[in-house]
Write a structure and sequence with these properties.
Order of helices and strands: HHEHEEHEHEEEHEE
CATH superfamily of the largest domain: Vaccinia Virus protein VP39
Strand order of the largest sheet: 3-2-1-4-5-9-8
Number of helices: 6
Distance between the termini: 32 Å
Largest sheet: 7 strands, mixed
Helix content: 25-40%
CATH class of the largest domain: Alpha Beta
CATH topology of the largest domain: Rossmann fold
Number of strands: 9
Length: 234
């Protein structure tokens, strides 16, 4: 029996949350014996690259980071030193793999909203295969008060208790009852959290009425869970 991601993570000290690994087993298991291209942004000490290399035995695994990990890689692993907010560097890395596209991209890099967005916008359209997966890890840093682009989470007041401008309310009438109901619902928008919430717009893009030109969403699915945003490309 082949080892699970949890077993490989422990063996190689990959520093991945158990819940993340369960999600990856569920979504990536059917690719385990395929000759795919995998990119991980942010590799820390390199254990995660060793984990992916062993899990995807026939894959080409590429890792990038601003610091060189203290591990010598061989076989199906390649490391490239560089920044995730450098589009030219990211394009060069993508151009170096078969077909210029990855089947799985996992962003475990800076955990800054802007840098994460730059990498996503550089790689998703042109360098992720149709049906491929784009994963953003640890997006909850936007809720951390001690994180550079995060902020302490402050629950919004219930909308029906908030004073609001008339333009942000509408009149609802049903069977003789009516009320001024809210249009705007406030939420936390800092750092990675704010970027992930922008992805919700893309998930519904094909049905948004006032955009031009109209097009389908780029996403087949968008799955959000604690710490992991997982996109399946259309």
């Amino acid at each position: 029996m082949m080892p699970s991601l949890a077993q490989l993570s422990q063996h190689f000290n990959a520093v991945k949350e158990p819940g993340y690994l369960e999600i990856y087993e569920e979504h990536f298991g059917h690719l385990r014996d395929k000759p795919i291209n995998v990119l991980e942004i942010g590799v820390h000490h390199g254990g995660s690259l060793l984990m992916w290399s062993e899990y995807f035995r026939f894959a080409h695994v590429v890792g990038i980071d601003i610091m060189e990990p203290p591990v010598r890689f061989s076989g199906n692993i390649r490391f490239c030193k560089g920044r995730q907010d450098d589009p030219d560097f990211l394009r060069q890395v993508a151009a170096s793999v078969r077909g210029g596209r990855f089947d799985i991209i996992i962003d475990d890099g800076s955990h800054f909203g802007l840098y994460t967005k730059i990498a996503y916008e550089t790689l998703f359209d042109e360098h992720l295969s149709s049906g491929g997966y784009y994963v953003i890890e640890d997006w909850g840093t936007g809720y951390w008060d001690d994180w550079p682009d995060g902020s302490r989470y402050q629950p919004a007041a219930r909308e029906w208790e908030m004073a609001a401008e008339e333009k942000n309310r509408f009149v609802y009438v049903e069977e003789g009852s009516f009320g001024h109901l809210p249009k705007l619902f406030h939420s936390h928008q800092f750092g990675m959290v704010g970027f992930v919430k922008q992805l919700v717009d893309e998930a519904h893009y094909g049905a948004i009425r006032n955009v031009s030109p109209r097009r389908p969403s780029k996403f087949r699915t968008l799955n959000l869970s604690e710490g992991v945003a997982l996109i399946r490309k259309r």
